[in-house]
Design brief:
The complex is a heterodimer. In chain A, strands 6-5-7 form a 3-stranded antiparallel sheet. In chain A, a hairpin with a 6-residue loop joins strand 1 and strand 2. Chain A folds into 2 domains: 43 residues, no CATH class; 161 residues, Butyryl-CoA Dehydrogenase, subunit A, domain 3, CATH 1.20.140. Chain A is 54% helix and 14% strand. By secondary structure, chain A is α+β, with helices and mostly antiparallel strands. Chain A is built from 7 helices and 7 strands. Chain B is of the alpha+beta class. Chain B folds into 2 domains: 37 residues; 155 residues, no CATH class. Chain B contains 8 helices and 9 strands. In chain B, the strands form 3 sheets. Chain B has a 4-stranded antiparallel sheet. The longest helix of chain B is centred in the middle third of the chain and has 31 residues. Chain B starts with 8 loop residues before the first strand and ends with a strand. Classes of the chains: A alpha+beta, B alpha+beta. At the A-B interface, strand 1, strand 2, strand 3, strand 5 and strand 6 of A face strand 2, helix 3, helix 4, helix 5 and strand 7 of B. Strand 3 of chain A pairs antiparallel with strand 9 of chain B, so a sheet runs across the interface. The complex binds zinc ion (ZN) (2 copies). The site of one zinc ion has 8 residues of chain B, from loops.
């Protein structure tokens, strides 16, 4: 009996493994699992278009967000301001190598890679330039899902401002606004990407070649 | 309730494609990656990362996390004494945020995962519905405990006014990041489907004699609900 079941007609819940008949959804609809309540599949509206625009905007904001000073302090007549990039340099300079690596990874590298990844994928779909390598690329993209911490870094900025405002003169710089917009763009581009749709399309474009099959 | 496992199917963890499971590890038909039906040795890995995180959490709280130099005189602050300072200054919201992010969240995550592993292993008073929700909350909270690390990193950078005031990071920050990263690994290695498996196992052993027709009825009566939107 087991061998007769064709996986194409079913969908399983990622969280509890419950099996359902595959529903046909229109754009903007989502199906939820009856047992655990998590989302089974979701069809997002204008997924490709939206994630293309958001990730493009995000990549353009990337440089100002990293290079422009985020905030500055004035104390006893001395003024000093720092950008995200300065942050890394100062940390390395003073021997805090591990924190420098972490800040670089979680607040710069991972968000950039994710934005560039979203842009590349939506670009390939928008202009119909699908390549088999996209399969591996999109698979690798999912490994970074949990490791972009721009939002946490943003909260970190707010908290350290509160910390400083007590005994120094604090100035907010343009870099902060760029950073906020960068955060918004990267969140939106990741949220707009419709994974089910992309995987579906990729599968149809590149049916598994016989070399990989047991035949 | 019908599960993919009971029908010999398995979900690819990366592309969410349903594959029929012929070998383990199975190669996904869509993304060509290898995967197992359930995360392998999930409970053992979760437990191991969890213990490691707990061990690292001790020096993270004992050593100073930030050292402030004022006119060349250093003063240490641990995570807890830093929070105490905020309370002294009357900055309660910030004190609460930092306390939640750097003490409560890691502890809740470690304890919660221990409980989940225990429940999934023994099946005692297991409520998969409730417990899988707890798991999601723990997973979501993970990255937020990096807050204190980022704050210290920013302080070190911004407050660099030569001899007047400067800030240095203390050794606790390394232990603390290790704690956070380990708890994230622990949460990643846990497989919430094990909770449902265990519950289903218990049910079938309890009522081993269920007519097969009824089983089929249960299977067919499940349709996903739809949320319309224009
Ligand atoms: Zn479910
Ligand atoms: Zn796959």
């Amino acid at each position: 009996m087991n061998s007769k079941i064709n996986p194409i007609f079913f969908v399983a819940c990622q969280q509890c493994d419950a099996l359902y008949d595959k529903p046909q959804l229109k754009q903007g609809q989502l199906a939820k699992c009856n047992r655990c309540g998590s989302t089974l599949i979701e069809r997002k509206v204008d997924s490709i278009e939206r994630s293309f625009n958001w990730s493009l905007a995000g990549l353009m904001l990337m440089l100002p967000a990293i290079l422009l000073p985020i905030m500055g302090v004035t104390l006893a007549g001395q003024f000093h301001q720092a950008s995200l990039f300065d942050c890394i340099l100062v940390l390395i300079d003073r021997g805090f190598f591990m924190i420098a690596c972490l800040v670089f990874l979680f607040a710069i590298a991972v968000p950039i890679v994710r934005l560039a990844g979203a842009l590349y994928i939506s670009y390939s779909f928008k202009f119909n330039k699908l390549k088999p390598s996209l399969l591996n690329f999109f698979r690798a993209y999912h490994y970074l899902d949990n490791w972009a911490m721009l939002n946490v870094f943003m909260l970190g900025i707010v908290v350290s401002m509160y910390k400083l405002i007590d005994d120094t003169e604090l100035s907010v710089n343009l870099g902060l606004f760029a950073f906020v917009f960068w955060l918004i763009c990267s969140t939106m581009s990741a949220a707009a990407l419709d994974q089910d749709y992309i995987w579906d399309k990729l599968e149809r474009a590149f049916p598994r070649s016989c070399a990989n099959e047991h035949c | 309730m019908n599960t993919a496992k009971s029908k010999g199917l398995s979900l690819c963890p990366k592309c969410h494609k349903l594959n029929s499971l012929t070998t383990e590890p199975q190669q996904c038909r869509r993304c060509h990656g290898l995967f197992y039906q359930r995360k392998r040795n999930s409970l053992q890995y979760t437990l191991a990362w969890n213990v490691a995180a707990l061990i690292a959490f001790i020096p993270a709280n004992l050593y100073p996390i930030m050292i402030v130099y004022q006119l060349g005189i250093p003063s240490d602050a641990t995570i807890l004494s830093g929070i105490g300072e905020f309370i002294d200054h009357g900055l309660y919201p910030i004190a609460i945020i930092i306390f939640t992010a750097s003490i409560i969240v890691p502890l809740i995550k470690i304890i919660g995962l221990f409980v989940l592993v225990y429940k999934a292993h023994t099946g005692i008073r297991l409520k998969p519905n409730k417990h899988s929700k707890i798991y999601h909350i723990l997973e979501f909270l993970g990255p937020w405990s990096m807050l204190d690390v980022f704050v210290v990193a920013l302080m070190v950078t911004v407050v660099e006014l030569g001899f007047v005031t400067s800030v240095a990071a203390g050794p606790a920050i390394n232990y603390f990041t290790i704690t956070v990263i380990f708890t994230m690994f622990a949460a990643n290695s846990f497989d919430p489907r094990l909770l449902w498996d265990k519950k289903a196992d218990k049910k079938t052993t309890e009522q081993a004699l269920l007519p097969s027709d009824k089983l089929l009825e249960n299977l067919l009566g499940t349709l996903p609900e739809e949320k319309g939107q224009k």
